[in-house]
From TrEMBL:
Protein name: Trypsin-like serine protease
Domain Peptidase S1 residue range list: 25-243
SMART domains in the cross-refs: Tryp_SPc
Keyword vocabulary terms for this entry: Disulfide bond, Hydrolase, Protease, Serine protease, Signal
Signal sequence segment: 1-24
GO biological process: proteolysis
Family annotation (InterPro entries): Peptidase_S1, Peptidase_S1_PA, Peptidase_S1_PA_chymotrypsin, Peptidase_S1A, Trypsin_dom, TRYPSIN_HIS, TRYPSIN_SER
């Protein structure tokens, strides 16, 4: 009666099974027992078990309006159709039967969940009072995807939620799944737009999984499209990791020669780029010469100021794409070469030919954590004002934007900022 190996193996195999047919949560196929066991209900919303003691869900489910101070502090995570841990004090083997299990916990609301950015930080974590495996057998957490892996436009992702059903979303609640290609991927949102195939109320806080079965986003809100919030933007906070602040920061001169040559790093040893000033003749003009006048470099706090390894990495047309980081995991930008045809000209095409990526000697700095694209724009590209990256983050890439063409105007539309993962 205590031989549970078959149940454990079955649950482990099915918890990451990815269906091959795209159907909607509103009208699609219900989730079978043993499939996506880690997705349950958190009071009126959905939630995903991401570790034995943590459930990721949506903050708006627990905060009235946009008021962070009025958010609830306690909630319950309910698992459906799972095998409970057997009670040895009884003569019945409870673990043989499927049942629903509720585990209470304490809520953590994202500290930046408030207007005007609440929809960018719609995350809450329920810290369970006891590990899930002490009450439910074979329920495996669904881990967060590594923050260096960003969702791509057109990529098929799988949404799992415990919301209402039917074309009008007025049917009874049921756990369902859908697979849809992404229609829009921007800095803090992954959107799905297919009429009749959408999430419903109650799916908020549900899981968005990639083909590896890892969690890449949380279902946030529903309009004409299904909007989800990518987890890579707040990876450190979700995982309960502290941010490593800057130690020292400074602006360092660059100039024409260094802007167009693969020479020495612009930053002092142990520091990384956080911002730069596309200067030219210092006039604010979309057609200004693509010359970096000066660069802002910052060193991690409480870490030795030294690099471990530096390598030049080819960039090319990626200068005009908001994709993944240019640097290999664990490295950050310390210099780049505004290349084009490799000629030193004030009207050279604003393409980054290559970037110098360096790793730090401190191992904790070389693990990437929260990763997000942040808007920059014309003014910030040609001045030494507000920092592009949040405190503690370093440049991993940037998009020379205006229109997305290789000979686009030389200003930075957005910057990819990466925080170390302690």
């Amino acid at each position: 009666m205590r031989n549970l190996g078959a149940f454990s193996v079955l649950a482990a195999c099915l918890s990451f099974f990815i269906p091959a047919i795209a159907l909607a949560l509103s009208v699609g196929t219900p989730v079978n027992p043993g499939q996506y066991d880690g997705v349950g209900r958190v009071d009126g919303c959905s939630g995903t078990l991401i570790s034995p003691t943590q459930v990721l869900t949506a903050a708006h489910c627990f905060c009235p309006g946009d008021k962070l101070g009025a958010c609830r502090t306690r909630a319950e995570f309910k698992l459906f159709d799972v095998h409970p841990v057997d009670n040895p004090a009884t003569t019945v083997n409870e673990s043989v039967y499927l049942t629903n299990i509720t585990i209470p916990g304490t809520l953590r609301i994202h500290p930046q969940y408030s207007q005007p950015t609440w929809n960018l930080n719609d995350f809450a974590v329920l810290d369970l009072d006891v590990p899930a495996h002490t009450m439910a057998l074979g329920v495996r957490p669904i881990p967060l995807q590594d923050p260096s892996v960003l969702p791509r436009l057109g990529e098929t992702l799988w949404l799992v939620g415990h919301g209402h059903t039917g074309n009008d979303c007025k049917g009874p609640r049921q756990k369902r799944w859908l697979a849809l290609p992404t229609a829009e991927v921007i800095a803090h949102a992954v959107r799905f737009i297919q009429p009749g195939k959408n999430a419903c109320p109650g799916d908020s806080g549900g899981a968005v999984l990639d083909q590896t079965g890892r969690l890449v986003a949380v279902i946030s809100w529903i309009g004409r499209e299904t909007n989800t919030r990518p987890t890579h933007t707040s990876f450190n906070w979700i995982a309960g990791l502290p941010d490593a602040p800057y130690g020292s920061c400074g602006w360092y001169p660059v100039g024409p020669q260094k802007s167009h040559g693969a020479g020495a790093a612009w930053c002092p040893s142990g520091q990384f780029l956080t911002q730069f000033d596309l200067e030219g003749d210092r006039s604010l003009d979309e057609h200004d010469a693509p010359i970096v006048g000066q660069a802002r470099c910052c060193a991690p706090a409480a870490a030795p100021s030294a690099w471990n390894q530096c390598n030049w990495v080819r960039v090319g047309p990626r200068s005009h794409q908001a994709g993944g980081a240019w640097c290999p995991p664990g490295s950050y930008i310390t210099q780049f070469d505004l290349d084009g045809d490799r000629a030193l000209s004030g009207r050279d095409s604003p393409i980054v030919g290559q970037a110098l990526c360096c790793r730090h000697t401190a191992p904790s700095i070389n693990n990437w954590g929260s990763t997000a694209w942040w808007p920059v724009g014309l003014q910030e590209s040609h001045g030494v004002g507000k920092a592009w990256c949040p405190s503690g983050a370093y440049l991993g890439a940037f998009d020379l934007d205006s229109g997305g063409q290789p000979h686009d105007s030389p200003y930075v539309g957005q910057a990819l900022c990466i925080k170390p993962r302690p």
